[in-house]
Design brief:
24 helices; single chain; 14 strands; 8-stranded mixed beta sheet; alpha/beta
């Protein structure tokens, strides 16, 4: 075992003395040492219960025959960091997490690892480290949050609270309703309840093969979540025994499967940044061009908040779970487009992706009772607050009783007056579009690519041409939008917010939410070299590469210039003559760095643009 390097032989007497001081017992020396890479953080709702989860998994690993050791990572709450300088630290925190996990694993010679992430940069940061160090690893997230409900009974989420700011600015919401929204949008612990970045990444872990079925959709408050924690704790011992490692699982084909899931479910645009970075750590050549090819052949069959489904219906992650979860989305792709998915890929279950689909596709003939319990019981809302959730997980002491499924039929295939699973997850013949929910745009404004969440764009905005209104930062853009400088028909340009120019590539949830809240989402487009929250919807094009700070054309746009966003033809063009562009380029001077100190000062010197995953080079 790898851990023998720190626990076997006379020369390791000092090491064993130190290990005994941590609680290692005399009968532990021949057992695998298992790292439990937790991310418990009180200020992040998706992570506030993970102290209890980490302890549960630790006890379950011990009961399964391993020697568990918990350590924690940092984590930034993107919603709380939004709209001020703190957001500049969000994406760079991914690199700090990857480096810190690598450090812990290399320094202490663990045999295997259970990763317990939940929110935005923590999931990809841990995945990057797992690929880099390449010891047997399994992911089990803290689970998604229940959707909130207002006094009127309307289902809401965090993004509705951000939309309400714009609505309040134009007098479209009362003070009473505004407070109602604020108080009920995030009712308990868990990753925010829409298909935002956190939930997108947790779902992708299933398709990539790094997490058990149910990881992305079973609610944080559910008893099924505890059963998932228990299964992950037991499975890591089998993975260590088999020496099945992340790079055995996360192959080129597995990354394709993950991105095709993302296209099918209309996930966050941030997944592109993260998948490119994770693939690089796995030693795999992966680029925007390949992702665009996958989008062309992958239908969009699922729309989840912030995207609206047919007739304006809004579904949340709990609805996806109730309809059959991620493996039912994958099953629908396999039924409708046989051969699209690479079903022979290995997964942490010890089975192939195809075998997992056969067991966990709720619409398949071979669906198991365990799978149905994940979907029927795992999607039930409980109304539990975070203290109740933590207390129940702590008191379970690593034990999770067998699921009790009270129905003999298959509710995941039965429509009711208030819920139709075939609307939440459509079959391919009824797809929302024949192409994926994310689209890569190229053109003179994005020679290396840009991305838009097509699943969240209103049909009338798929093609839009209008005059630019330019802002040099997100803060300036927010002031301009709320100050009513943005008029119908315009194209908002927010620049010098890329990985290097920001630095840190801030999310743009505030300006996009203000645009929507103020009733401009069907008449205004937005482009930026920054990025968007997974909660963003509308004609919002991000990741424009090359970015302004490296001399990209977006840095030369002037107020009034015509910009054309043509999503069907995958083009993003500045309608200015080549002669004028050359004149402006000759006059352009690279601006001084916004931050030349601390972590971000170091980060901006080595970070690549979004088309390369905003990785640190060199």
């Amino acid at each position: 075992m790898r851990s023998d390097q720190i626990k076997k032989g006379a020369e390791r007497a000092g090491h064993r003395s130190l290990l005994r001081a941590t609680g290692v017992r005399e009968d532990d020396w021949d057992k695998p040492f298992i790292a439990i890479c937790n991310s418990y953080i009180d200020i992040v709702p998706g992570h506030v219960h993970l102290n209890a989860v980490g302890q549960f998994v630790k006890e379950a690993v011990r009961q399964a025959g391993g020697v568990p050791f918990i350590f924690n990572t940092i984590g930034v709450d993107d919603g709380i960091a939004m709209g001020h300088e703190g957001m500049k630290y969000s994406l760079p925190s991914r690199e700090l997490i990857a480096d810190s996990v690598e450090t812990m694993l290399r320094a202490h010679c663990f045999d295997g690892m259970v990763c317990i992430p939940n929110c935005d940069k923590i999931v990809p940061g841990m995945l990057m480290a797992a690929m880099r160090v390449n010891i047997p690893t399994i992911f089990v997230s803290g689970g998604p949050m229940e959707a909130g409900r207002t006094r009127s009974g309307r289902k809401v989420d965090l993004i509705d609270a951000f939309y309400a700011v714009g609505q309040k600015e134009i007098g479209a919401i009362s003070d009473e309703d505004f407070l109602d929204m604020e108080q009920n949008a995030c009712p308990t612990c868990g990753s925010c309840s829409g298909m935002f970045t956190a939930n997108s990444m947790n779902c992708l872990c299933e398709a990539l093969g790094m997490a058990l079925p149910g990881n992305g959709t079973v609610l944080a408050t559910s008893e099924e979540r505890k059963r998932l924690y228990r299964r992950a704790a037991e499975q890591i011992l089998r993975l260590v025994e088999q020496d099945l490692k992340p790079r055995d699982i996360a192959t080129l084909e597995a990354f394709d499967n993950a991105m095709m899931l993302d296209m099918a479910m209309g996930g966050s645009t941030n997944t592109l940044l993260h998948v490119l970075a994770i693939a690089r750590e796995a030693g795999i050549e992966y680029d925007m061009g390949r992702i665009n090819e996958l989008s062309l052949k992958t239908p969009n069959i699922c729309k989840v908040a912030p995207s609206a489904a047919a007739e304006g219906k809004v579904f949340h992650i709990q609805d996806v779970d109730r309809a059959g979860g991620i493996h039912t989305i994958l099953g629908s792709l396999e039924r409708g487009k046989p051969g699209l998915l690479k079903t022979g890929c290995k997964t942490v279950t010890g089975k192939t992706l195809g075998e997992n689909i056969a067991e966990f596709d709720a619409r398949g003939d071979g669906v198991s009772r365990e799978a149905l319990a994940l979907y029927v019981e795992g999607s039930k809302t409980t109304g539990k607050d975070v203290e109740t959730v933590r207390r129940e997980i702590f008191s379970a002491k690593g034990q999770a009783p067998a699921a009790k499924l009270d129905v003999a039929s298959n509710p995941c295939t039965e429509a009711t007056p208030d819920f139709d699973p075939f609307e939440v997850i459509r079959e391919v013949e009824r797809a929302y579009s024949p192409e994926g929910g994310l689209t890569i745009l190229y053109g003179n404004l994005a020679e290396e690519g840009s991305v838009v969440k097509t699943a969240g764009v209103d049909p009338e905005m798929l093609c839009h041409e209008g005059p630019a209104i330019v802002f040099e930062s997100q803060e300036d853009a927010c002031k301009g939008i709320l100050g009513k400088r943005v008029k119908p028909g315009m194209v908002v340009v927010i620049r010098y917010e890329g990985p290097r120019g920001g630095p840190g590539m801030q999310e743009m949830l505030s300006p996009t939410s203000f645009i929507k809240g103020m009733g401009l989402s069907k008449s205004v487009a937005l482009i930026t070299d920054g990025r968007f929250s997974g909660g963003t919807s509308g004609a919002c094009v991000g990741h424009v590469s090359p970015e302004a700070a490296e001399g990209g054309l977006i840095g030369l746009v002037q107020d009034g210039d015509l910009i054309r966003v043509d999503i069907p033809n995958k083009r993003l063009e500045l309608k200015v003559s080549e002669a004028e562009i050359a004149k402006r380029r000759a006059a352009w001077k690279r601006p001084e760095p916004k931050m030349n100190f601390g972590w971000l000062g170091r980060y901006q010197k080595g970070v690549a643009n979004a088309a390369k995953g905003a990785i640190l080079e060199g």
